[in-house]
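As promised in the previous annual report, we have extended the structural survey to additional targets. Below is the entry for Cyclic nucleotide-binding domain-containing protein.
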Amino acid sequence: MPSLSVFDLLAVHDFVADLPGDWITRLAGTGHPVYYGTGHRLFREDGAADRFWLLHSGVVAIDFYVPGRGDIVIDRVGPRTLIGWSWLTVPYRWQFGAVVAEDVRAVEFDAAAVRNLVDEDPELGRELTARILRVTADRLQKARHRLVELYAYPGVTS
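The corresponding structure token record, generated without further manual editing, is:
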């Protein structure tokens, strides 16, 4: 079975499928398909945010480090979603961590290249930013709920 091009992978991904074809083509030029096995750490909190992913399969655990408690999972996200938003704003440092919980197939993007596209096309930039803000708001809400859960039940660790 032939593998799909990056354009084809984006054209069927919920995050960008409804964008104009020329935008998808431009985004496709900044990404490449990847596979990561269970246990692979995509990034750690405060590391350089130089890429992001659109998941096609698998699960990623979003976490953050709590001194004395270790890495605390605040969310698990699956296919058809975005992983990583910290690449969009200065200082380009991850706000959370992420580790592969179930083998992942995704399109990985070069963040600097996408920022260049955003600078070149403000309309594309506004649309991507709005979509990323929706993901961010959802993840922050889940993090808030997870922190309440941890505070209410201190023995919970993952």
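The chain has a mean pLDDT of 92. The longest helix spans residues 122-152. These points will be discussed at the next consortium meeting with the crystallography subgroup.
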